[in-house]
Amino acid sequence: MMGRIVPPCRGLPMSALPPPAARKIAARGLFRRMPPAVFPPLLGLTGLGLAWRRAGDQTALPGGLAELLLGGIFLLWCFMIGAYLSKVFRRPGVLREELSLLPGRAGLAAADVSAFLMAAVVAPYLPGLALAILVLAVGCHLCLGFAVLKAYFTGPEEARVITPVWQLIFTGYIILPFTLEPLGYTQLAHLAYFYAVFSGLVLWLQAVWMLVKRIPPAPLRPLLAIHLAPASLMVLSSVILGYETMALLLAVVASGIFLALLLSARWLTAAGFSPFWGAFTFPLAAFANAQMAMGWMITGILALIAASAMVAFVASRVWQMWARGTLAIKTNTPTA
């Protein structure tokens, strides 16, 4: 006589089973609910690698270690970008759903900007590959900006909110001179620079106006740290293009923003850790790089150490959440 079939879960404590949402994600297939929230820490890690490259060039630190780090970051970047593209290829319409959510917009913008930085990483070794990455990334970023503007002007009134993420979307082109100038595209580098400086200035003024009108809720406050990134990146591009006075002025602006964020750290983190803490990573790495580019090595190295600790902490926490399946749930990520 055949005995009663016992379900495989019988006898296991509930804590030993993955949550229902995680089981559903696993059943649907690998990377089908990959959250764009994994990309801000990746952007921070890429920027950190470039900052360590500069430290190797300007100090007695071994530059080979920085290049080894950048090689590992390049492989990780290829894996993450490829994983997300597999999700988009399964269902291209998922992009529209991602863009309707703030974590999705922030993550996709960070993915594009990380490609700008990755072009600068590989340019000394493979200029052709660097240019190809840059062209593809610029095309994607232009489409992203168009989609965001369309949603802003055609969406409901209550959804028309300009967030610090717009700095990534519309000022992220400030990174283009990192690659364009060494590859000989000087005019394009200057064009991207002046556009990005104008865009960043407009968005800074808008941010001040918004802070005067309304204090952002605690969970969204970490995004304010993004405003440090364009100022720091403008310093780097100014140095590359030879605008020394502009570089000094922007370095002072970046230092002022950094001090304001540092003094507001407790207020910024009042809601506790969340995926939005990825917004702390890349601005701090860019700030460290900018300080060293100006020759302010003491503050630059201190900022580099702080950035290394912050990137390691945030990236490990966010990517652990991704591996467990909870990051997609917390950010309400759509499934392909």
TrEMBL record:
Domain of life: Bacteria
GO molecular function term, any single one: monoatomic cation efflux transmembrane transporter activity
Membrane topology: Multi-pass membrane protein
InterPro entries referenced in this protein's UniProt entry, alphabetically: SLAC1/Mae1/Ssu1/TehA, Tellurite_res_ion_channel, Voltage-dep_anion_channel_sf
Bilayer-crossing regions: 63-85, 106-123, 129-149, 161-180, 192-212, 224-241, 247-263, 270-288, 294-315
Location of the protein in the cell: Membrane
Keyword line: Membrane, Transmembrane, Transmembrane helix
PANTHER family: DEP DOMAIN-CONTAINING PROTEIN, TELLURITE RESISTANCE PROTEIN TEHA
Protein name: Tellurium resistance protein
